Amino acid sequence: MPRILHDLACLDDRRPSPYCWRSKYALAHKGLEFEARPQGFLDIPRLYGGAHRTVPILDDDGHLVGDSWAIADYLDARYPDRPRLFEGPAERALCRFTEAWLFGSLVPLLMPMLALDIHDHARPEDRAYFRESREKWLGRSLEAAAAGREERLGDVRAALNPLRLNFTVQGQQYITGDRPGYADYIAAGLLQWVASVATLPLLERDDPVVAWLERVRDLHGGLGRTSPMYAIAA
Q1: Last residue of a domain, one of 47, 78, 109
Q2: Cis bond leading into 56, ω under 30°?
Q3: Judging by beta carbons within 10 Å of its beta carbon (0-12, 13-18, 19+), is residue 65 exposed, middle or buried?
């Protein structure tokens, strides 16, 4: 039975979910083969009798695991002889901090800017659901949220300074040092979300964050280049 990771998919087989990206990288990090099976927003509640509300969902020969953190912990426990995602409590804490920082400071800036792009790239049957749910969350229309987004690029770029300094001041190749780790997969997954749908380039070409993202995309046989992306820098 193939190992299946259920993955959010939009038009043209774009794969925007940052959580699914980190789980795909986690599987590749462990050296495990898998099929990233595409699912639309409205397909997800129909999977496995509605047991999971979101993706990723890992089906590992009948063992079902939902949520990217649960999947990472499952993989380390199930396959301890393969490269670990968390070498110890300190690395896991770094990963938790990375997620809290990115999703606390960057996502609130990005979601209003990108929600309309996500809607326009969603499968036609998913668009009404996406619009209703995200407009409720944003408190305004998708069009109003996206208006003037070019003027907000500076705020987004500034919010990435801690990541940028990791490469310029610390001289590290990856967040975890000289080797890629789950913290890199968390951060890169977020930028893969952006590149999957954003018609507005987020960064400047000479940004060290871009060079790091290209390194992460090249990992595991070019995993980060397996679905369509827009240029994230201009």
Answers
A1: 78
A2: yes
A3: buried
For residue 55, give the 3-state DSSP assignment: coil
Which pLDDT tens digit goes with each residue over 121-150? 999 999 999 999 999 999 999 999 999 999
* Residue 59 host element (H or E): strand 57-60
Q: Which of 24, 45, 78 is the last residue of a domain?
A: 78
User: Is it the case that residue 1 has pLDDT exceeding 70?
Assistant: no
Which H or E run contains 201? Answer: none
97 shares its domain with 199: yes
Q: Which two tokens stand for residue 107?
A: 């996502």
Contacts 24+ apart (CB under 8 A), 167-170: 167/208, 167/209, 167/211, 167/212, 168/208
Supply the range of the domain harboring residue 17: 4-78
Residues 100, 189, single domain; the answer is yes
CATH number for the domain harbouring residue 186: 1.20.1050.10
Helices 208-222 and 18-29 sit at what angle, rounded to 10 degrees?
Answer: 50
Give, rounded to a whole angstrom, the gap between the first and last alpha carbons of the chain: 43
125 phi/psi in degrees, rounded to 5: -70, -15
Concatenating the DSSP letter of every residue in 117-147 gives HHHHHS-GGGHHHHHHHHHHHHTS-HHHHHT
207: which strand partners?
none
* Residue 198 resides in a domain: yes
Spatial neighbors of 184 by CB under 8 A, at least 6 apart, are 25, 174, 175, 176, 212, 216
The model's pLDDT over 25-75, given as tens digits with 9 standing for 90+, comes to: 999 999 999 999 999 999 999 999 999 999 999 999 999 999 999 999 999
